[in-house]
Amino acid sequence: MKSETYIQKAYRCILQNDFEEALRWFEEAIQANPGDAEVHYRCSITYGRSNRLEMAISHAEEAVRLQPDKPEYALHLQHIKAAELVQKARKMVEGRTDVTKSELYQAVSHLKSAVAMDPLHSQAYVWLALVYSELNEHALAIATLREVIALFPQESSLQHIMEELKQRLKSYLQEPASDRKRGHENGR
Questions:
Q1: Are residue 43 and residue 89 in the same domain, yes or no?
Q2: What are phi and psi of 141, to 5 degrees?
Q3: Residues 79, 56: contact at Cβ < 8 Å?
Q4: Domain co-membership, 107 together with 166
Q5: 131 and 101 Cβ atoms separated by less than 8 Å
Q6: What is the DSSP letter of 97?
Q7: What's the pLDDT tens digit per position in 46-55?
Q8: Buried b or exposed e, range 168-178, using 16+ CB within 10 angstroms
Q9: Is residue 180 scored above 80 in pLDDT?
Q10: In this structure, which of 1, 56, 176, 182 has its CB flanked by the most CB atoms within 10 Å?
Q11: Residue 188: which pLDDT band, with cuts at 50, 70 and 90?
């Protein structure tokens, strides 16, 4: 079968929200024509939508390697790499009560890199603000959230997070100074 036939089948599957089957057809198209940068790019997008970022990065890198003059391929690669950094940072802190200060700062580093790679990645900003708040860096948390609200003013959920951060700041400021100092010494 020709790679165009596999691609048509992949698109049909995407329209039916069957991304796993679409990925199978994209991989078949790549087997039939491994030098087609556009197929690697489309395959990468589908892997990204399926949250399989390692494969998404692999195919995005191949698309860029095959056709470095296509800016959309390079932008997509940056977006996927930023998403991977956000995912790493989230895994480090989400739902954990034993996160160390060192891990929080490592998460900050990942999230700052994600924002630098993809300045429109709203989740990178949100997670950065939340991690700053965990570090009791409330002013940085609020400033970071203000940045993303300026980018996405229609997102009402961001206003809710802002109110939560302001409440955390208010609670923090109402703590006795000795308790705040002890919290910093204990890594929180």
A1: no
A2: -60, -50
A3: no
A4: yes
A5: no
A6: S
A7: 999 999 999 9
A8: bbeeeeeeeee
A9: no
A10: 56
A11: very low
DSSP sequence for 94-134: TT-S---HHHHHHHHHHHHHHHHH-TT-HHHHHHHHHHHHH
Q: Which residue has the tokens 């199978």?
A: 24
Q: Taking CA 80 as the corner, what is the angle to CA 68 and CA 151, rounded to the nearest 5 degrees?
A: 105
DSSP code, position 114: H
pTM: 0.83
CATH number at residue 86: 1.25.40.10
Query: What are the structure tokens assigned to 126, written together?
Result: 């949100």
Q: Out of 20, 48, 69, pick the residue that ends a domain.
A: 69
Q: How many domains does the chain have?
A: 2
| Same domain (yes/no): 168, 88 | yes
Do residues 35 and 115 both lie within one domain?
no
42 lies in which domain range? 1-69
Confidence band, pLDDT 50/70/90 cuts, at residue 77: very high
